[in-house]
């Protein structure tokens, strides 16, 4: 079969495998939706949050951008990292290495799965936010364009980082303990759950070196009123800087994948 046909079959296989794993579905696919519901209900009686009078939103609207970005990171980096590490540990990758399956088709299957699940997850998250919690979604086409390129670039970055980080755990059973804490810490320091500028300056600098901070900031520029930009570091969204940093992570991630990915660990 042609590589494109093989890749398409791998995408279908990976999607079916993903939704057959209850832990993956809950901790990656449903997690942002559950968190949005929890925050919205918990702060339903709290005053709106915002940088000043006339520029405030309810908590469902406030948390939505960060959770959209988090969902992409979970579906890509966390899900792929744990999944591939498990496949390497249980011998699945070694068996695949003995077949005609091209490495690029294997990658395409994984990335295609992340693309489909991330788009589906984001769509459900936005639908729940709008229909259940009354969040006003953007009506400006320019904001939706920003949303589109952040989603696509975020999916690409998260996917290659997931493939790259899968090489860290020496055993599949340790993958969750190795990868999940990293992703969880990034959520707390990247402005997903806490206002970014409330963090110490040094911690803001650390977070700014990682992609989730820029994905979350970019999503805030889409879903929050423009006045919220004054609450960002430097008083602006800095979308150009975010695009450059995300692209840099994509290039580095691809290079690391090509250098480190093996069907079987050398020390196995």
What is the 3D shape? globular
Largest sheet: 2 strands, antiparallel
Strand order in the sheet with the most strands: 1-2
Distinct helical segment count: 10
* Low-confidence parts: none
- Indicate the proportion of strand residues: under 5%
Mean pLDDT: 93
Domains, number: 1
Q: In percent, how helical is the residue content?
A: 55-70%
Alpha-beta content class: mainly alpha
Query: First CA to last CA: what distance?
Result: 31 Å
Alpha-carbon Rg, integer? 19 Å
Number of strands: 2
Task: Return the string of H and E elements.
Answer: HHEEHHHHHHHH
Could you characterize the architecture of this molecule?
Strand 1 and strand 2 (55-57) form a beta hairpin. This protein has one domain (3-44, 56-260). It contains ten helices and two strands; from the N terminus they run ααββαααααααα. Helices cover 69% and strands 3% of the residues. It is globular and about 65 Å long. It has helices at 3-19, 22-42, 59-89, 92-97, 103-131, 141-165, 175-189, 201-207, 211-223, 239-260; strands spanning 49-52, 55-57. It is an all-alpha fold and 268 residues long. The protein has a two-stranded antiparallel sheet. The model has no long low-confidence stretch (mean pLDDT 93). Helix 2 runs antiparallel to helix 3 (59-89). The chain starts with a helix and ends in an 8-residue tail after the last helix. It is a multi-pass membrane protein. Keywords: Antibiotic resistance, Cell membrane, Membrane, Transmembrane, Transmembrane helix, Transport. The chain crosses the membrane at residues 25-43, 63-86, 107-132, 144-168, 175-196, 236-261.
